[in-house]
Amino acid sequence: TRGNPAPISLAQLERGGWDMPRPNTMPQGEACQRLRRQLQEAQEQSESMRLDADVGIPLHFSGLLNLSLHAKFFVLRPPPELRQLRGRALECEYFGHMYSFEYMYTDFFEMNRQFLANSAEEADFVVLEHCVTYAYHVLRYGAGFNTVKLTWEALRIAQESYLLPLIHWAETTPAYQKTQGRNFVIVFAMDKGRVDYPMASRATQHWHAITTVGNGTTWMKRNQPWLRPESDSAPDPCKGRSSTSKRRLVYYEQDVVVPVPTSFEWTPEAQQTEDRHLLVFYAASPNSCIRRSIASQLAASDDAEVLVIPKPIPKKPWSDFLFRSKFCFVPDGFSSISARLYEVLLHGCVPVLLTHAFHPPFETLIDWRRIAVFLHNSQVADAPAILRNISQEEYLSMHRQVTRVQRLLNVHDMPFWIATNMELMQRKQELG
């Protein structure tokens, strides 16, 4: 067994020296070169930025931070005969930020080998290598499963033909027998996490799952983050019509919620507050009840500081509007969480969440009530007035908090991964 790890101070972490996720997890060509430059710049910045001041990990977590930096992982790679989909070989590949996180997670450890244990039996956490969401997309877009009905069939096949055999194989390993899987980790990159893969979720209900969604309404009810109480005379117009009404999220106490990976990064434009002349901005397709409510009530607003566009717009003007806005609406869509929240934050726009099923990432590290405004669905029409009532001092304080935590939200920056490890260690300590 390993001896007690030597403590690592925050100052040591500030000096950097950590590898970034492997460049070959990124797309090829010009986009690949751009992201490689971004990774190099982020690495250089990490050597000069103070973690406690600029990254946002509270100092009282320093003990947990030390444990997390010494935590050892083992990537459990299935044999070639199991890395198959419907009898054909399937090797995991990067195919876009959000849905490639299953691949990116294990690839991170391959590149940052200081986190690796010598064997699965010695590891604090054992990570099953897989890419079930890639398998699903292969079926959907490469094998003709691109209809509503066949989409569900593709999810079933991806589990039965690909992921479940990997899980059952993992259960036969000595490391699994040693802990009965309590230190095993599985990543689910689809929009709704475990609930998108119900068979695999049941088989791994005692594992740690890393997803971008959590326990639905539980966190909201427990933390009551809303800026103002909901009026009794204004019932929720979208009650029973949300993305989780028919398929409730599945979450276990050992699971960890992380930010949705995006292609955006923090820039000087995100840092500034002087040129944010719009009070609130929003542009998206009306694919949910609350999105339609925003469009119907505010798209025709004659308020010059309120800009609501009821359809998607090109990336460049959309990004420009985010940089020019103090607040940005982030309502539920197909899911209770999406990349939109993190794209908004990485543009320095304070998010205005309209949701009843939000479970934030890194909940033990970030006080989300200090970086976001939570409104009830019934408050859409009053949202501009509510936001105007937030003083400039309060707004600037929220923007400063966004600035502090932005590196935790960037999958290409080391603090993202350290925070993920810290959340895993926190769950392990809590559950004994």
Task: Offer a quick outline of the entry.
The chain has 432 residues and is of the alpha/beta class.
What's the arrangement of secondary structure elements?
Elements (H helix, E strand, L loop, with lengths): L9 H5 L14 H18 L4 H5 L6 H9 L2 E4 L7 E2 L2 E2 L11 H11 L13 E4 L3 H11 L5 H23 L3 H6 L4 E4 L10 H6 L4 E4 L5 H7 L32 E2 L10 H4 L6 E6 L5 H10 L7 E4 L5 H9 L1 E7 L7 H8 L3 E5 L18 E3 L7 H6 L3 H14 L8 H18 L1
Parallel strand pairs: 1-4, 4-5, 5-6, 6-7, 8-9, 8-10, 10-11, 11-12
Antiparallel strand pairs: 2-3
Helix pairs in contact: 4-17, 6-7
The best one-word shape is: globular
Stretches with pLDDT under 50, minimum 5 residues = 1-29, 42-53
How is the quaternary structure best described? single chain
Structural class, from helix and strand content? Answer: alpha/beta
Domain module count: 2
Strand order of the largest sheet: 1-4-5-6-7
Helix coverage percent: 25-40%
Count of DSSP-assigned helices: 17
Order of helices and strands: HHHHEEEHEHHHEHEHEHEHEHEHEEHHH
Main sheet summary: 5 strands, parallel
The number of distinct β-strands equals 12
